[in-house]
Amino acid sequence: MHKFFSSRKLVIIVVCLIIGLGLISGSVAVRKNRATPPLIQQVGNDVVGFGDRIVSLSANGVGSLFGATGNLLNTYQENNHLKGQVEQLAQTQVKNQALENENTKLRQQLDIKGTPTDYKSINASVITRTPSSWLNQLIINKGSASGVQKNMSVIVNSGLVGRVAEVNKTNSKVELITDKGDNASRFSVQVQGQKKVVNGLIDGYNRDTNELVMGSVTNQDKIKTGTKVMTNGLGGVTPKGLFVGKVAGTKQNSDGISEKVNIKPAANMDDIEAVTVIGKKD
Amino acid sequence: MRRPSRLKFLFPIGLVIAFLLEGSISKLFSPVLFEKFSMVPYLTLMWLVMATLFARHEKLHIGWWALGIGIVYDVYYVGIVGIFMFAFPLVVYINRIVFKFVRENLVTSSLIYMGDVLVVFVLSYLGDRIAHIASLSGTQLLIYTLGPTLVLNLILFVILYFPIRALFNYFS
Predict the structure, then answer these.
(1) Strands, DSSP E only, in chain A?
(2) Domains in chain A, ordered, with CATH?
Protein backbone atom coordinates (compact mmCIF):
# COMPACT_ATOMS: atom_id res chain seq x y z
CA MET A 1 0.00 0.00 0.00
CA HIS A 2 2.94 2.33 0.67
CA LYS A 3 3.63 2.43 -3.06
CA PHE A 4 0.15 3.60 -3.90
CA PHE A 5 1.19 7.16 -4.60
CA SER A 6 4.41 6.47 -6.39
CA SER A 7 5.53 9.20 -8.76
CA ARG A 8 4.51 7.25 -11.84
CA LYS A 9 0.96 6.83 -10.57
CA LEU A 10 0.80 10.46 -9.60
CA VAL A 11 1.75 11.43 -13.14
CA ILE A 12 -0.94 9.13 -14.54
CA ILE A 13 -3.55 10.61 -12.20
CA VAL A 14 -2.63 14.16 -13.14
CA VAL A 15 -2.64 13.35 -16.86
CA CYS A 16 -6.05 11.67 -16.53
CA LEU A 17 -7.41 14.69 -14.68
CA ILE A 18 -6.17 17.04 -17.36
CA ILE A 19 -7.54 14.89 -20.19
CA GLY A 20 -10.84 14.55 -18.35
CA LEU A 21 -11.25 18.26 -17.77
CA GLY A 22 -10.23 18.97 -21.35
CA LEU A 23 -12.78 16.52 -22.72
CA ILE A 24 -15.51 17.87 -20.45
CA SER A 25 -14.94 21.48 -21.42
CA GLY A 26 -14.62 20.49 -25.08
CA SER A 27 -17.91 18.67 -25.12
CA VAL A 28 -19.62 21.45 -23.19
CA ALA A 29 -18.44 23.90 -25.83
CA VAL A 30 -19.75 21.64 -28.59
CA ARG A 31 -23.07 21.14 -26.80
CA LYS A 32 -23.51 24.87 -26.40
CA ASN A 33 -22.34 26.16 -29.73
CA ARG A 34 -22.72 23.60 -32.44
CA ALA A 35 -25.94 22.33 -33.91
CA THR A 36 -24.78 18.71 -33.88
CA PRO A 37 -22.01 16.87 -32.01
CA PRO A 38 -18.87 15.70 -33.88
CA LEU A 39 -19.45 13.00 -36.46
CA ILE A 40 -17.81 10.20 -34.48
CA GLN A 41 -20.00 10.96 -31.48
CA GLN A 42 -23.06 11.00 -33.71
CA VAL A 43 -22.23 7.66 -35.27
CA GLY A 44 -21.63 6.16 -31.83
CA ASN A 45 -24.94 7.51 -30.61
CA ASP A 46 -26.78 6.14 -33.61
CA VAL A 47 -25.26 2.68 -33.23
CA VAL A 48 -25.99 2.49 -29.50
CA GLY A 49 -29.43 3.96 -30.05
CA PHE A 50 -30.20 1.24 -32.53
CA GLY A 51 -29.24 -1.50 -30.08
CA ASP A 52 -31.09 0.25 -27.31
CA ARG A 53 -34.32 0.18 -29.25
CA ILE A 54 -34.43 -3.60 -28.97
CA VAL A 55 -33.90 -3.55 -25.23
CA SER A 56 -36.22 -0.65 -24.56
CA LEU A 57 -38.91 -2.15 -26.74
CA SER A 58 -39.00 -5.31 -24.64
CA ALA A 59 -38.66 -3.38 -21.39
CA ASN A 60 -41.47 -1.05 -22.37
CA GLY A 61 -43.56 -4.04 -23.37
CA VAL A 62 -43.32 -5.40 -19.84
CA GLY A 63 -44.00 -1.95 -18.45
CA SER A 64 -47.07 -1.36 -20.54
CA LEU A 65 -48.44 -4.73 -19.47
CA PHE A 66 -48.57 -3.48 -15.89
CA GLY A 67 -49.84 -0.13 -17.06
CA ALA A 68 -52.61 -1.79 -19.06
CA THR A 69 -53.85 -3.69 -16.01
CA GLY A 70 -53.93 -0.49 -14.02
CA ASN A 71 -55.76 1.31 -16.78
CA LEU A 72 -58.36 -1.41 -17.05
CA LEU A 73 -59.28 -0.95 -13.40
CA ASN A 74 -60.19 2.70 -13.70
CA THR A 75 -61.62 2.61 -17.20
CA TYR A 76 -65.21 3.02 -16.07
CA GLN A 77 -64.63 6.23 -14.14
CA GLU A 78 -62.45 7.59 -16.86
CA ASN A 79 -65.06 6.81 -19.47
CA ASN A 80 -67.75 8.75 -17.65
CA HIS A 81 -65.44 11.66 -17.19
CA LEU A 82 -64.33 11.65 -20.80
CA LYS A 83 -67.88 11.45 -22.16
CA GLY A 84 -68.56 14.79 -20.60
CA GLN A 85 -65.42 16.26 -22.05
CA VAL A 86 -66.02 14.95 -25.56
CA GLU A 87 -69.29 16.81 -25.87
CA GLN A 88 -67.56 20.05 -25.05
CA LEU A 89 -64.70 19.17 -27.35
CA ALA A 90 -66.89 18.88 -30.43
CA GLN A 91 -68.18 22.38 -29.83
CA THR A 92 -64.70 23.75 -29.34
CA GLN A 93 -63.47 21.98 -32.42
CA VAL A 94 -66.12 23.49 -34.65
CA LYS A 95 -65.49 26.90 -33.24
CA ASN A 96 -61.76 26.39 -33.60
CA GLN A 97 -62.13 25.50 -37.24
CA ALA A 98 -64.26 28.52 -37.94
CA LEU A 99 -61.74 30.75 -36.22
CA GLU A 100 -58.87 29.15 -38.07
CA ASN A 101 -60.55 29.71 -41.41
CA GLU A 102 -61.28 33.27 -40.52
CA ASN A 103 -57.69 33.69 -39.38
CA THR A 104 -56.22 32.37 -42.63
CA LYS A 105 -58.50 34.58 -44.68
CA LEU A 106 -57.58 37.66 -42.69
CA ARG A 107 -53.92 36.78 -42.96
CA GLN A 108 -54.18 36.41 -46.69
CA GLN A 109 -55.80 39.78 -46.91
CA LEU A 110 -53.11 41.38 -44.81
CA ASP A 111 -50.38 39.36 -46.53
CA ILE A 112 -48.85 38.08 -43.29
CA LYS A 113 -46.69 34.96 -43.42
CA GLY A 114 -45.16 32.93 -40.62
CA THR A 115 -46.63 34.37 -37.45
CA PRO A 116 -45.18 33.00 -34.22
CA THR A 117 -48.06 30.60 -33.73
CA ASP A 118 -47.18 28.64 -36.87
CA TYR A 119 -45.20 25.54 -36.18
CA LYS A 120 -44.20 22.19 -37.57
CA SER A 121 -44.30 19.08 -35.44
CA ILE A 122 -42.48 15.76 -35.39
CA ASN A 123 -43.78 12.85 -33.32
CA ALA A 124 -41.24 10.70 -31.52
CA SER A 125 -41.19 8.09 -28.82
CA VAL A 126 -38.86 7.98 -25.87
CA ILE A 127 -36.20 5.28 -26.06
CA THR A 128 -34.52 5.75 -22.73
CA ARG A 129 -33.66 8.16 -19.96
CA THR A 130 -30.30 9.30 -18.66
CA PRO A 131 -29.71 7.36 -15.45
CA SER A 132 -28.93 10.41 -13.36
CA SER A 133 -30.53 12.30 -10.52
CA TRP A 134 -29.42 15.75 -11.49
CA LEU A 135 -29.69 15.51 -15.25
CA ASN A 136 -33.25 14.97 -16.41
CA GLN A 137 -32.66 13.97 -19.98
CA LEU A 138 -34.60 11.76 -22.35
CA ILE A 139 -33.40 10.14 -25.55
CA ILE A 140 -35.99 10.10 -28.31
CA ASN A 141 -36.03 8.08 -31.52
CA LYS A 142 -36.02 10.90 -34.08
CA GLY A 143 -33.01 12.87 -35.17
CA SER A 144 -31.79 15.20 -37.86
CA ALA A 145 -32.93 12.69 -40.51
CA SER A 146 -36.52 13.43 -39.49
CA GLY A 147 -35.98 17.16 -39.27
CA VAL A 148 -35.26 17.59 -35.58
CA GLN A 149 -33.07 20.59 -34.84
CA LYS A 150 -31.29 21.73 -31.75
CA ASN A 151 -33.29 23.89 -29.32
CA MET A 152 -36.67 22.84 -30.68
CA SER A 153 -39.36 22.63 -28.03
CA VAL A 154 -40.68 19.28 -26.89
CA ILE A 155 -44.24 18.77 -25.70
CA VAL A 156 -46.50 15.95 -24.65
CA ASN A 157 -50.20 16.28 -25.26
CA SER A 158 -50.74 17.98 -21.93
CA GLY A 159 -47.99 20.57 -22.20
CA LEU A 160 -44.41 21.65 -22.59
CA VAL A 161 -41.76 19.29 -21.22
CA GLY A 162 -38.40 20.42 -22.52
CA ARG A 163 -36.02 21.29 -25.27
CA VAL A 164 -33.79 19.38 -27.69
CA ALA A 165 -30.22 19.52 -26.39
CA GLU A 166 -28.34 17.32 -28.83
CA VAL A 167 -29.24 16.04 -32.28
CA ASN A 168 -27.84 12.91 -33.92
CA LYS A 169 -28.89 11.33 -37.18
CA THR A 170 -31.51 8.99 -35.75
CA ASN A 171 -31.92 10.03 -32.13
CA SER A 172 -31.76 13.15 -30.00
CA LYS A 173 -31.43 14.13 -26.39
CA VAL A 174 -34.13 16.17 -24.70
CA GLU A 175 -33.49 18.21 -21.59
CA LEU A 176 -36.56 18.54 -19.39
CA ILE A 177 -37.62 21.94 -18.07
CA THR A 178 -37.28 20.60 -14.56
CA ASP A 179 -33.51 20.87 -14.94
CA LYS A 180 -31.81 23.89 -13.51
CA GLY A 181 -28.86 23.66 -15.87
CA ASP A 182 -27.57 26.76 -17.59
CA ASN A 183 -29.32 26.26 -20.88
CA ALA A 184 -32.02 23.83 -19.88
CA SER A 185 -35.21 25.70 -19.20
CA ARG A 186 -35.18 29.41 -19.95
CA PHE A 187 -38.39 29.34 -21.87
CA SER A 188 -39.86 32.70 -22.64
CA VAL A 189 -43.46 32.58 -21.43
CA GLN A 190 -46.45 34.83 -20.95
CA VAL A 191 -49.45 34.91 -18.68
CA GLN A 192 -52.57 37.03 -18.82
CA GLY A 193 -52.68 39.44 -15.89
CA GLN A 194 -55.73 41.35 -14.76
CA LYS A 195 -55.07 44.21 -17.19
CA LYS A 196 -52.20 43.30 -19.45
CA VAL A 197 -50.08 40.40 -20.60
CA VAL A 198 -47.11 39.62 -18.34
CA ASN A 199 -44.02 38.19 -20.01
CA GLY A 200 -41.21 36.36 -18.23
CA LEU A 201 -38.64 33.60 -18.30
CA ILE A 202 -38.84 30.21 -16.67
CA ASP A 203 -35.70 30.21 -14.56
CA GLY A 204 -36.03 27.49 -12.03
CA TYR A 205 -37.79 24.47 -10.68
CA ASN A 206 -38.80 23.72 -7.13
CA ARG A 207 -38.50 20.02 -6.54
CA ASP A 208 -40.35 20.04 -3.22
CA THR A 209 -43.52 21.53 -4.59
CA ASN A 210 -43.07 20.37 -8.22
CA GLU A 211 -43.47 23.91 -9.47
CA LEU A 212 -41.67 25.89 -12.14
CA VAL A 213 -40.56 29.39 -11.27
CA MET A 214 -41.05 32.24 -13.71
CA GLY A 215 -38.77 35.20 -13.17
CA SER A 216 -37.63 38.30 -15.07
CA VAL A 217 -41.23 39.41 -15.09
CA THR A 218 -41.73 42.37 -17.41
CA ASN A 219 -44.53 44.28 -15.75
CA GLN A 220 -46.42 44.21 -12.52
CA ASP A 221 -49.97 43.11 -12.61
CA LYS A 222 -52.23 41.00 -10.45
CA ILE A 223 -52.09 37.42 -11.67
CA LYS A 224 -54.85 35.08 -10.61
CA THR A 225 -54.07 31.57 -9.42
CA GLY A 226 -55.06 29.08 -12.07
CA THR A 227 -54.36 31.34 -15.03
CA LYS A 228 -52.87 29.46 -17.96
CA VAL A 229 -49.24 30.07 -18.85
CA MET A 230 -47.95 29.60 -22.40
CA THR A 231 -44.84 30.31 -24.43
CA ASN A 232 -44.80 33.72 -26.06
CA GLY A 233 -42.72 32.93 -29.13
CA LEU A 234 -40.24 35.70 -28.48
CA GLY A 235 -36.78 34.67 -29.63
CA GLY A 236 -35.36 31.27 -30.48
CA VAL A 237 -37.23 28.54 -32.27
CA THR A 238 -40.02 28.17 -29.73
CA PRO A 239 -43.36 29.03 -31.31
CA LYS A 240 -46.06 30.97 -29.51
CA GLY A 241 -48.88 29.28 -27.69
CA LEU A 242 -47.39 26.10 -26.23
CA PHE A 243 -49.15 25.35 -22.97
CA VAL A 244 -46.80 25.26 -19.99
CA GLY A 245 -49.02 25.04 -16.95
CA LYS A 246 -51.20 26.96 -14.54
CA VAL A 247 -50.23 29.66 -12.08
CA ALA A 248 -49.97 28.27 -8.55
CA GLY A 249 -49.12 31.51 -6.81
CA THR A 250 -46.97 34.60 -6.93
CA LYS A 251 -44.21 35.65 -4.59
CA GLN A 252 -42.54 38.98 -4.06
CA ASN A 253 -38.78 38.73 -4.39
CA SER A 254 -36.66 39.74 -1.43
CA ASP A 255 -35.57 42.92 -3.22
CA GLY A 256 -39.19 44.05 -3.21
CA ILE A 257 -39.16 45.05 -6.85
CA SER A 258 -39.48 41.97 -8.97
CA GLU A 259 -41.95 39.19 -8.70
CA LYS A 260 -41.74 35.44 -9.10
CA VAL A 261 -44.62 33.41 -10.44
CA ASN A 262 -44.92 29.76 -9.49
CA ILE A 263 -46.29 27.52 -12.20
CA LYS A 264 -47.69 24.03 -11.82
CA PRO A 265 -46.54 22.28 -15.00
CA ALA A 266 -49.31 20.67 -17.01
CA ALA A 267 -47.21 17.71 -18.12
CA ASN A 268 -46.16 14.93 -15.79
CA MET A 269 -42.38 14.93 -16.22
CA ASP A 270 -41.91 11.53 -14.63
CA ASP A 271 -43.96 9.50 -17.01
CA ILE A 272 -43.24 10.40 -20.62
CA GLU A 273 -43.72 7.78 -23.30
CA ALA A 274 -44.15 9.74 -26.50
CA VAL A 275 -43.40 13.34 -27.31
CA THR A 276 -43.88 15.86 -30.08
CA VAL A 277 -40.98 17.99 -31.19
CA ILE A 278 -42.09 21.45 -32.21
CA GLY A 279 -40.23 24.05 -34.22
CA LYS A 280 -41.13 27.35 -35.80
CA LYS A 281 -42.07 27.14 -39.44
CA ASP A 282 -39.53 28.91 -41.58
CA MET B 1 -2.07 -22.33 -20.31
CA ARG B 2 -5.77 -22.73 -19.65
CA ARG B 3 -8.31 -22.87 -22.36
CA PRO B 4 -9.98 -19.45 -22.65
CA SER B 5 -13.26 -19.67 -20.80
CA ARG B 6 -16.66 -18.70 -22.06
CA LEU B 7 -16.51 -15.73 -19.72
CA LYS B 8 -14.80 -13.94 -22.59
CA PHE B 9 -18.23 -13.75 -24.20
CA LEU B 10 -20.45 -13.60 -21.14
CA PHE B 11 -18.73 -10.56 -19.68
CA PRO B 12 -19.01 -8.17 -22.66
CA ILE B 13 -22.56 -9.26 -23.51
CA GLY B 14 -23.63 -8.82 -19.91
CA LEU B 15 -21.93 -5.44 -19.83
CA VAL B 16 -23.84 -4.19 -22.85
CA ILE B 17 -27.13 -5.54 -21.52
CA ALA B 18 -26.53 -3.97 -18.11
CA PHE B 19 -25.69 -0.70 -19.81
CA LEU B 20 -28.85 -0.61 -21.90
CA LEU B 21 -31.04 -1.85 -19.05
CA GLU B 22 -29.78 0.97 -16.84
CA GLY B 23 -31.41 3.54 -19.10
CA SER B 24 -34.53 1.51 -19.78
CA ILE B 25 -35.14 0.86 -16.11
CA SER B 26 -34.54 4.52 -15.32
CA LYS B 27 -37.17 5.41 -17.86
CA LEU B 28 -39.65 2.69 -16.98
CA PHE B 29 -39.53 3.30 -13.25
CA SER B 30 -38.95 7.04 -13.39
CA PRO B 31 -42.17 7.75 -11.44
CA VAL B 32 -40.67 5.73 -8.58
CA LEU B 33 -36.96 6.37 -9.02
CA PHE B 34 -36.89 10.09 -9.59
CA GLU B 35 -39.70 11.37 -7.38
CA LYS B 36 -38.97 13.06 -4.07
CA PHE B 37 -36.25 10.54 -3.32
CA SER B 38 -34.08 10.29 -6.34
CA MET B 39 -32.05 7.16 -6.89
CA VAL B 40 -30.02 5.82 -9.77
CA PRO B 41 -29.60 2.09 -10.39
CA TYR B 42 -25.91 1.83 -11.35
CA LEU B 43 -26.25 -1.49 -13.17
CA THR B 44 -23.25 -1.05 -15.46
CA LEU B 45 -21.07 -0.36 -12.47
CA MET B 46 -22.49 -3.36 -10.67
CA TRP B 47 -21.66 -5.68 -13.57
CA LEU B 48 -18.10 -4.33 -13.71
CA VAL B 49 -17.66 -4.79 -9.97
CA MET B 50 -19.12 -8.30 -10.04
CA ALA B 51 -16.68 -9.18 -12.80
CA THR B 52 -13.74 -7.91 -10.75
CA LEU B 53 -15.00 -10.06 -7.88
CA PHE B 54 -15.89 -13.31 -9.59
CA ALA B 55 -13.51 -13.40 -12.54
CA ARG B 56 -10.37 -12.24 -10.80
CA HIS B 57 -8.21 -14.98 -12.22
CA GLU B 58 -9.32 -14.64 -15.80
CA LYS B 59 -7.75 -12.33 -18.34
CA LEU B 60 -10.82 -10.36 -19.31
CA HIS B 61 -9.29 -6.89 -19.71
CA ILE B 62 -11.97 -5.51 -17.43
CA GLY B 63 -10.16 -2.18 -17.15
CA TRP B 64 -10.25 -1.59 -20.89
CA TRP B 65 -13.87 -2.66 -21.12
CA ALA B 66 -14.61 -0.23 -18.30
CA LEU B 67 -12.95 2.54 -20.26
CA GLY B 68 -14.89 1.63 -23.39
CA ILE B 69 -18.28 1.38 -21.74
CA GLY B 70 -17.48 4.59 -19.86
CA ILE B 71 -16.96 6.45 -23.13
CA VAL B 72 -20.19 5.04 -24.56
CA TYR B 73 -22.00 5.95 -21.34
CA ASP B 74 -20.74 9.51 -21.57
CA VAL B 75 -21.58 9.90 -25.22
CA TYR B 76 -24.94 8.19 -25.24
CA TYR B 77 -26.50 8.98 -21.89
CA VAL B 78 -24.91 12.19 -20.75
CA GLY B 79 -23.62 13.94 -23.86
CA ILE B 80 -20.56 15.20 -21.99
CA VAL B 81 -17.44 13.10 -22.57
CA GLY B 82 -14.82 12.63 -19.88
CA ILE B 83 -16.67 11.62 -16.71
CA PHE B 84 -17.58 7.95 -16.65
CA MET B 85 -14.70 7.04 -18.94
CA PHE B 86 -12.44 7.73 -15.96
CA ALA B 87 -14.80 6.80 -13.14
CA PHE B 88 -15.38 3.22 -14.29
CA PRO B 89 -11.72 2.22 -14.80
CA LEU B 90 -10.85 3.92 -11.51
CA VAL B 91 -13.37 1.78 -9.68
CA VAL B 92 -12.03 -1.38 -11.31
CA TYR B 93 -8.51 -0.36 -10.31
CA ILE B 94 -9.50 0.41 -6.73
CA ASN B 95 -11.25 -2.93 -6.41
CA ARG B 96 -8.21 -4.81 -7.71
CA ILE B 97 -6.03 -3.19 -5.08
CA VAL B 98 -8.50 -3.61 -2.24
CA PHE B 99 -9.11 -7.29 -2.91
CA LYS B 100 -5.42 -8.01 -2.68
CA PHE B 101 -5.80 -7.27 1.02
CA VAL B 102 -9.38 -8.22 1.77
CA ARG B 103 -11.04 -11.61 1.71
CA GLU B 104 -13.97 -11.61 -0.66
CA ASN B 105 -17.42 -12.43 0.72
CA LEU B 106 -20.89 -10.88 0.65
CA VAL B 107 -20.26 -8.44 3.49
CA THR B 108 -16.89 -7.11 2.35
CA SER B 109 -18.04 -6.98 -1.27
CA SER B 110 -21.15 -5.00 -0.52
CA LEU B 111 -19.22 -2.60 1.69
CA ILE B 112 -16.67 -2.02 -1.03
CA TYR B 113 -19.41 -1.73 -3.61
CA MET B 114 -20.89 1.07 -1.51
CA GLY B 115 -17.52 2.78 -1.74
CA ASP B 116 -17.48 2.27 -5.51
CA VAL B 117 -20.95 3.76 -5.90
CA LEU B 118 -19.85 6.70 -3.78
CA VAL B 119 -16.78 7.23 -5.98
CA VAL B 120 -18.83 7.16 -9.17
CA PHE B 121 -21.53 9.34 -7.63
CA VAL B 122 -19.09 11.99 -6.47
CA LEU B 123 -17.03 11.98 -9.67
CA SER B 124 -20.06 12.18 -11.94
CA TYR B 125 -21.56 14.94 -9.83
CA LEU B 126 -18.34 16.94 -9.91
CA GLY B 127 -18.05 16.43 -13.66
CA ASP B 128 -21.63 17.52 -14.28
CA ARG B 129 -21.11 20.43 -11.93
CA ILE B 130 -18.10 21.54 -13.97
CA ALA B 131 -20.13 21.11 -17.14
CA HIS B 132 -22.95 23.18 -15.60
CA ILE B 133 -25.58 20.55 -16.18
CA ALA B 134 -26.09 19.46 -12.57
CA SER B 135 -29.32 20.81 -11.17
CA LEU B 136 -29.04 19.73 -7.52
CA SER B 137 -27.11 20.89 -4.52
CA GLY B 138 -26.99 20.89 -0.70
CA THR B 139 -29.49 18.88 1.31
CA GLN B 140 -31.38 17.95 -1.83
CA LEU B 141 -28.26 16.19 -3.04
CA LEU B 142 -27.11 14.56 0.19
CA ILE B 143 -30.36 13.51 1.81
CA TYR B 144 -32.75 13.01 -1.06
CA THR B 145 -30.29 11.68 -3.63
CA LEU B 146 -27.07 10.22 -2.24
CA GLY B 147 -28.74 8.34 0.63
CA PRO B 148 -31.47 6.68 -1.42
CA THR B 149 -29.03 5.90 -4.25
CA LEU B 150 -26.68 4.09 -1.87
CA VAL B 151 -29.55 2.17 -0.29
CA LEU B 152 -31.05 1.14 -3.63
CA ASN B 153 -27.72 -0.01 -4.99
CA LEU B 154 -26.90 -1.92 -1.82
CA ILE B 155 -30.23 -3.74 -2.02
CA LEU B 156 -29.75 -4.54 -5.71
CA PHE B 157 -26.22 -5.75 -5.05
CA VAL B 158 -27.26 -8.05 -2.22
CA ILE B 159 -30.14 -9.46 -4.25
CA LEU B 160 -28.04 -10.05 -7.37
CA TYR B 161 -24.84 -11.19 -5.65
CA PHE B 162 -25.55 -14.90 -5.54
CA PRO B 163 -27.30 -15.23 -8.93
CA ILE B 164 -24.48 -13.44 -10.73
CA ARG B 165 -21.83 -15.42 -8.86
CA ALA B 166 -23.57 -18.60 -9.95
CA LEU B 167 -23.66 -17.28 -13.51
CA PHE B 168 -19.94 -16.53 -13.52
CA ASN B 169 -19.12 -19.90 -11.98
CA TYR B 170 -21.27 -21.68 -14.54
CA PHE B 171 -19.54 -19.99 -17.46
CA SER B 172 -15.95 -20.11 -16.21
Answers:
(1) 119-129, 137-140, 153-156, 159-167, 172-176, 188-192, 197-206, 211-215, 228-232, 240-252, 259-265, 274-280
(2) 36-73+114-282 (2.40.10.340)
